[in-house]
Amino acid sequence: MKKAVLLAALTATVLTPLVQAQSINNLRIMAPASPGGGWDQTSRALQSALQATGIAKPVQVFNVPGAGGTIGLAQLVNSKGDGNQLMTMGLVMVGAIITNGSKVDLTKVTPIARLTGEYEVLVVPANSPYKTMKDFTAAWKANPGLAIAGGSAGGTDHMLVGLLAKAAGVDPKKMNYVPFSGGGETLAAVLGNQVAGAVAGYGEFEAQVDAGKLRVLGISAGKRQPGIKAPTFKEQGLKVELANWRGIVAPPGISAADKAKLIGALDKLHASQEWQAMLKERGWTDLYMSGNKYSLFLKTEAARAKGILKEIGLAK
User: Which residues belong to the signal peptide in this entry (predicted)?
Assistant: First the structure.
């Protein structure tokens, strides 16, 4: 009897931390943008999957829009030590920190995990004389002022065009990048032959590509992507690879236990059927990494973004 009681006590002692580690109570996720955008969608997908798996309950999403996410970043930094708060962010924020001269940057936060990403494509109208990247870059070298449309100045699209220009032998400072505030405007510009080409995530152009109205010249992935009939820029001689990734960070100054708890929760979520189904349903590319590997990635990505934006002329 005593042995049974002792065994039960030991079992309870061992299992209690494991049970506690399986569920996070009252988790808050900040989307540093307006409702409906990419960071908001990612935050709400995360909320849904965390609750469905029981990894965290309840989970609240709140929005702090403005300045490419840097207003939300500043608020997160002021939440020092809060181990129950996360923020969704990504490459767009990395660029905004640099171009906006933000007083806070990603060295002030606690990296948790990179979740997803989307590779970018360069498209031209179906009636364009440019059939391949070789055709396009030849014309670009002859005329650096060739107009290429994309999202906001300093964002992922702009960075990609800068990388392509450099790889093609075009001075990035002389390129003619035409920024638009939304994907609909970019799409209208390229369909209307107002620009020679346009850059965005493949999803922005997919319907028009399928309808034969646009042609994809290249994709910024390291290898060809399932479901996208397009060669990579790399295989066409342009050493360019870029993903519009989205990740998660926590406030500074959280305890080692809280950091481990949050990383463990996202590791578990990534392995779940619910999250994998979410990725498939939304067409998101799985770019998961966590912990120290993600911390190193953030440092190298920030340095790379600064280098690109300097060459474009948007950073000092």
Answer: 1-21
Which tens digit of pLDDT belongs to each residue from 226-254? 989 999 999 999 999 999 999 999 999 99
Q: Are 222 and 132 in contact (CB under 8 A)?
A: no
- C-alpha–C-alpha distance, residues 275 and 133, integer Å: 36
* 307 burial level (CB within 10 Å; 0-12, 13-18, 19+): middle
Are the C-beta atoms of 266 and 289 separated by less than 8 Å?
A: no
Cβ count within 10 A of residue 53:
19
Q: How confident is the model over 34-67, as pLDDT tens digits?
A: 999 899 999 999 999 999 999 999 999 999 999 9
Within this chain, do residues 42 and 74 fall inside the same structural domain, yes or no? yes
Question: At 287, is the secondary structure helix, strand, or coil?
Answer: strand
Residue 34 phi, psi (nearest 5): -70, 160
169: containing domain: 118-236
- Rounded CA-CA distance 134/53 in Å is 48
| pTM attached to this predicted model | 0.88
The residue-averaged pLDDT of 95-124 equals: 97
Strand partners, 265: none
Give CA separation, 61 vs 13, 155, 180, in Å.
Answer: 34, 24, 28
Query: Distance between CA 1 and CA 232 in Å, rounded?
Result: 69
Please say which residue of 236, 264, 291 terminates a domain: 236
* Statement: residue 293 has pLDDT above 80: yes
Expressed in angstroms, the distance from the first to the final Cα of the chain is 75
Considering the domain architecture, whether residues 22 and 74 belong to the same structural domain is answered as: yes
3-state class of 223 per DSSP? coil
